[in-house]
Amino acid sequence: MLSVIVRSALTKYRGLRLPSQSVVRAMSSSGGPTSPYTTLAISHPVESITHVELHRPEKLNAMNKAFWSEMVDCFNEIAGDADCRVVVVSGAGKIFTAGIDLMDMASDVLQPQGDDTARISWNLRQKIVKYQETFSVIEKCPKPVVVAVHGACIGGGVDLITACDIRLCTQDTWFQVKEVDIGLAADVGTLQRLPKVIGSRSLVNELALTARKMYADEAKSSGLVSRVFPDKEAMISGALEMAGEIAGRSPVAVQGTKINLIYARDHSVAEGLDYMATWNMSMLQTQDVMKSAQAAMEKKSPKTVAFSKL
Amino acid sequence: MLSVIVRSALTKYRGLRLPSQSVVRAMSSSGGPTSPYTTLAISHPVESITHVELHRPEKLNAMNKAFWSEMVDCFNEIAGDADCRVVVVSGAGKIFTAGIDLMDMASDVLQPQGDDTARISWNLRQKIVKYQETFSVIEKCPKPVVVAVHGACIGGGVDLITACDIRLCTQDTWFQVKEVDIGLAADVGTLQRLPKVIGSRSLVNELALTARKMYADEAKSSGLVSRVFPDKEAMISGALEMAGEIAGRSPVAVQGTKINLIYARDHSVAEGLDYMATWNMSMLQTQDVMKSAQAAMEKKSPKTVAFSKL
Amino acid sequence: MLSVIVRSALTKYRGLRLPSQSVVRAMSSSGGPTSPYTTLAISHPVESITHVELHRPEKLNAMNKAFWSEMVDCFNEIAGDADCRVVVVSGAGKIFTAGIDLMDMASDVLQPQGDDTARISWNLRQKIVKYQETFSVIEKCPKPVVVAVHGACIGGGVDLITACDIRLCTQDTWFQVKEVDIGLAADVGTLQRLPKVIGSRSLVNELALTARKMYADEAKSSGLVSRVFPDKEAMISGALEMAGEIAGRSPVAVQGTKINLIYARDHSVAEGLDYMATWNMSMLQTQDVMKSAQAAMEKKSPKTVAFSKL
Amino acid sequence: MLSVIVRSALTKYRGLRLPSQSVVRAMSSSGGPTSPYTTLAISHPVESITHVELHRPEKLNAMNKAFWSEMVDCFNEIAGDADCRVVVVSGAGKIFTAGIDLMDMASDVLQPQGDDTARISWNLRQKIVKYQETFSVIEKCPKPVVVAVHGACIGGGVDLITACDIRLCTQDTWFQVKEVDIGLAADVGTLQRLPKVIGSRSLVNELALTARKMYADEAKSSGLVSRVFPDKEAMISGALEMAGEIAGRSPVAVQGTKINLIYARDHSVAEGLDYMATWNMSMLQTQDVMKSAQAAMEKKSPKTVAFSKL
Amino acid sequence: MLSVIVRSALTKYRGLRLPSQSVVRAMSSSGGPTSPYTTLAISHPVESITHVELHRPEKLNAMNKAFWSEMVDCFNEIAGDADCRVVVVSGAGKIFTAGIDLMDMASDVLQPQGDDTARISWNLRQKIVKYQETFSVIEKCPKPVVVAVHGACIGGGVDLITACDIRLCTQDTWFQVKEVDIGLAADVGTLQRLPKVIGSRSLVNELALTARKMYADEAKSSGLVSRVFPDKEAMISGALEMAGEIAGRSPVAVQGTKINLIYARDHSVAEGLDYMATWNMSMLQTQDVMKSAQAAMEKKSPKTVAFSKL
Amino acid sequence: MLSVIVRSALTKYRGLRLPSQSVVRAMSSSGGPTSPYTTLAISHPVESITHVELHRPEKLNAMNKAFWSEMVDCFNEIAGDADCRVVVVSGAGKIFTAGIDLMDMASDVLQPQGDDTARISWNLRQKIVKYQETFSVIEKCPKPVVVAVHGACIGGGVDLITACDIRLCTQDTWFQVKEVDIGLAADVGTLQRLPKVIGSRSLVNELALTARKMYADEAKSSGLVSRVFPDKEAMISGALEMAGEIAGRSPVAVQGTKINLIYARDHSVAEGLDYMATWNMSMLQTQDVMKSAQAAMEKKSPKTVAFSKL
């Protein structure tokens, strides 16, 4: 349903610049979802990099029931895949995502089960907690996740991208915290993460309370994204290049950095430092430090070093 | 006293652009404070929107004794007023506010009572806690508060606006964390909220430690305000329009959003998500979701929906 | 070693604009480290202002063993020096700092002692905790610290400046969170403080995970620094002027402000307010309030007031 | 209703030993509630001691609507009454309290208002928060509160006494966390405070999950009460004597102790110590230290010292 | 291995009083583990009560690899089983459990994999986190868990029982925090939960640092267990009776109580109250309140009420 | 002064049973303070055990200026002494300690310096923070500290022992939270640690608010001490035996246990578990696990194993 709404919105949105289809094809392994997934296409454009593509382009990548559980399986698998060092997330088709597929989810969200209000509430809470996990797995996965957004990123899409580590977008992208338009407070991450992701609280509140669109320029100046690209093709190239930079460095260093950055967000500086010291008392014993230092002395890039898998 | 200081500062401040008087009049219900208040003018420019105007224009809206308690009464009343869905705060006269009216407050702050240092301290602490409540009520009020600042926002004014949800200003506005100039560390909210409201800690520290003025452009680029308007008239229109957007949406969604955004600021992401799930297990059972979804399917704005009062 | 690497990098870095040597000389008391320090030059360019200069210019101010302990002694002394009200930190020579001097530190970091992994870890943890203190002392020192960065600020340099209160830089400065290049997660402060210092989490993650350089303009727009100066001479003047503004105000107000701003960063707003009230119940009893108010009434700057030492 | 249930329970409870009526009369100022209260009798058996008596003996002091708001008014007044240094709370009649008066409260709790589930929830939450305040005021009141329990302490009674500072009971007392018997999780304090008041978590869980009665001996050995008296008369004497000990000491010391003990419960040791230092930096400047030290040197009790009011 | 050690210890432990075999048989459904488990026997002695029996009696219920994952599956299933309202945990055979089965776990714990220290550490951390989950599932399961301990509860056994809600034991039981004897700090829960389960920190430290045995009497007086029974038969009866009391009450009340008790342990009182209010705003709308109140008015036990499943 | 008061109190205290002088002599290396200390006698009764004796017996071990700084030096040295694995603390002479030596401390505490109230407060706060450190070093020292108390433990003595890990006392000991008698709230640890050390909050409040004495039996039943001995001689033997048990076990296990127990006290269970896993990912790689396991298989005590120093 929401996808229907968005589609009609897109019709009105004249500025939409479609990315060249070749890029989309290039990035998805087989032009469609990858077994065992029906909504995600997984590929490995380069060694050590996993590309996760939201892939229901005909539905504007609206998040249906399958999506909410496939994301968990997908990122749990990535978390345990020693061959993967970085993840790139993008969306197939016209836009990144239209957000929750209300049509498909309606029975879950709009017709909750239970003998009385308490029992309906109990069941709803379990569902919400489960849906929250869909994006929290991105954060729990120790490999950095670069998300590349194009076209539009609506509702659940904002929940998704705020759980990623690095956000990129194309010049034609708009973002929308859509939930108040549907009569609910966003409950799968946007309200918790967006204020810790961008620096202007006034803007966060405005976006969440009015559901207005934010375009690429404001997304850049507010810090939601750290880079804007002219089109999807350039962005995907940029995302892969950035992912390559990360993948080329010591996974002990990179993944320890992600874990401690997230820990620091949720703790005082003193607590973050204590945890960091306890973390690094073992991690500094990695051979990667010696290997990296050696490369540096020889004026080689760390990317020339062969690091063991983690 | 502080208002005296500021007034002389304003004399020197050549760039001050006075808003057209018609706007000020239009916004205040009766051209002055509204019973039972002596420093606040309350009006209802549009259904569901409450406009609170700081209204001691001849004193540059300096915050006298009455103000500190009237704000608490006013926002407690608003919190309980089911007819109000959004609040707009602005200042009458030349500037938003000159901050604390030291002349009127001197006996409280400068001549504290008590038989010995401990007892004076005890009494001072009770006063500070009481004054802090003056602005914390804004945050505790579940209805979003849009503050529209013009001219100047000094000292206590910054404490006030950082407790609001959305900040707007005119091009001619300057902001000043004035307290160090009076020999004290700001103690009613600025030091606690400003760093969580704007994204540059270096700037926060500079403002608080040097008491320098910050003008509209820097306020915008730093994220203190999310929009700058050419003049007060345009700003008030803009504030009302924005308030209208918010007031037109489900109050269950809007007020739940405010409450959870504030909760998220003060907690880890994991704790924020847990609270959110517990909140929404009942709130998702609102009819507003169905009504909003129905409107969306019919391509109507959520503002066309008649939501029950909250 | 790292200094070697950086030096070669600088050779390639064509845009480096050297500050006039006269400024550097003017700022360091005797053209070199000040007894009892071998890596720091301490001077008092103006009453109440202490200037701490990283002073191993021939090594690009790389942080050797001596540096890590001298910083602690230096800031502990400053904390207890009633004649000092503000600190300015800068670097002698071509750049601010090349970061950790891996050559000198290698035995500590790369050849940790211990009979088994647990004991090596135990010893490493003690070292990390000790090194963290090198920058935490800046934060624990109640006097505001303004840091003026030029040329380059690499690795440990970012850990250092994020612990300062106000950050300034020259137009030719670049910043680099270097640690992942050496195979380790930054463990002396950057990962804990950088996300609380600038407003874009996407940018923080990008910098920490890719080790890319960030130049002055992005440092300014992201809020890492609050001012950019054309060259080092102008920056040092600007830093001293800003320090003078702070030093001229009540030390009770200024140092109470710093302490409470740091407390607020690590606590909820409610807890910060409670602490603030408890702090000010005594601090408001200072004569500085009366003196400052008196000056204000007489339209004098607070800088004309003679405040007692703190 | 609950009082009905309890009364029938009491009929079966053979061991109930009625306190001599003279004591009850002696303690309540006029043999009944004190204006402006209808459920509380306030008296001042000794200077500096306020006695608050739950006084609906014919209803077993069941907590009706009036009670929930009168407690707030009562303790707010006590908090501001410089003549009061300690509070003793007890119950008139056969038992301390039968807990919530469901009959009187039914419209509030059992027939909540609202147009849909979300709005009913919203209203219920406001009520719960208000009822929680009824007991939290005891904790927010800086004067120590000694509660003397006899006969039975049921449901809301446990919520009440866990918010007090010192708990005493008679040998014939039983305690009951009654809420699960009525189909609800205790929501006005027991679940939050009981585990922090007694040392056995297994016992806490057993009491809260089975609603079984706990008798005086187990209340003593588990630490719920710190003293058990043979009968109500002895207990009231004991409570007054203990209150006298407290009232005779410096109110700066005593009230600072209560505030910091409660702060410590809710914070880490490091945070508690920091708050304590900030608290005492002013409070140590009281004349009470000198007066108390002087008395000690002269081998006099601190109770002989005349301390200023606080 | 540890089981070997313990067995020899038991040989020396003369006081061991074997429970009658009939009880053990009665409680385990089929005299052995229940499909799909190899270490757990699951039965339903009474409607709504699930009995989980550690069932490797020939190995003294030592915790082998299968056990660590079967517990997670088992309690996840129980959490989702609407027919279960309470869980009883006990051990088959001579003792409750000898703790970790080091022989079976050796490859995991003693021979960790990885190319260097950092990678070994990384893998070990994942294992520890996984093992911690084995007992945390007990806490995350909203149904109360009563654990009935007999004979001996060693090492991992203490980790297990401190995650349960109510602890019972026989007179012949001893408890031992065994880990320091094996050269490691307990890392799956004892150090985190034991201090919050019993009231004497001195005792907790003594037990954890010396690995001395604690017998039933001290377990009772310190609050580790809330009841001691003469033998296993009596204890199982008692456990079932207590479980029956809990199972007979409203599951909305009971499970909400467990969830909020655990929340309260880990939060300040103010935060616990806030969460509680948000929880109960929906849960109070259960029909169970009406049904329970009705029963109470009719002087019936809540156990006579038919509550809907949760 | 306080020592004077206490001495006269002791004169009245008839029950005082003096320990045999031979024990005291045996325990202190040279019958008096050990260079460089004037208030502490340090000895090494057994390898790996350090005995710290409060040693101003003629002043009842009252805590004078020297004591407050010597404790810090002493425990910092112990923390870094690889030959020490456990610490025993006791008092020389008639009683454990009379608490703060007000006579000697008067200039610090009673005559604080500063030009105005704020500056006096500032200086007082620094002193309090310094004095708090005197006992916090005990907690920061990773070696377990067993404290053996005899006779009396007053005021500062309670602050001291609550920072120790295990508390023992003789039958003739009384404890007194003395501070309210001197007109101040205890500010060096008692209010923060006592409630987390014993399980009855009612008792904690009673002790802190009335300054009444608590005798050995209540200290045992409340959990303040975990063992009571008939006299000092037996207690010292018991303390050494217990210390020997701890010293004989793996220092990696023992010190990791202490550190994590303290961490757990100040954090939620989830956070404690996370820290524990991060701690043990390296510490489990110690050879001590293998050595301990080997000993266990051979039925030898862990005390027979030769562990490397830590």
From TrEMBL, chains A, B, C, D, E, F:
Gene3D superfamilies: 2-enoyl-CoA Hydratase, Chain A, domain 1, Lyase 2-enoyl-coa Hydratase, Chain A, domain 2. Keywords: Acetylation, Fatty acid metabolism, Isomerase, Lipid metabolism, Peroxisome. GO terms for biological process: fatty acid metabolic process. InterPro entries: ClpP/crotonase-like_dom_sf, Ech1-like, Enoyl-CoA_hydra/iso, Enoyl-CoA_hydra_C. This is Delta(3,5)-Delta(2,4)-dienoyl-CoA isomerase, mitochondrial. The lineage of its organism: Eukaryota, Metazoa, Chordata, Craniata, Vertebrata. GO terms for molecular function: delta(3,5)-delta(2,4)-dienoyl-CoA isomerase activity. Pfam families: ECH_1. Belongs to the enoyl-CoA hydratase/isomerase family. It comes from Lates japonicus. Transmembrane segments: none annotated. The keyword Acetylation applies. Its main location: other. Isomerization of 3-trans,5-cis-dienoyl-CoA to 2-trans,4-trans-dienoyl-CoA. PANTHER family: DELTA(3,5)-DELTA(2,4)-DIENOYL-COA ISOMERASE, MITOCHONDRIAL, ENOYL-COA HYDRATASE.
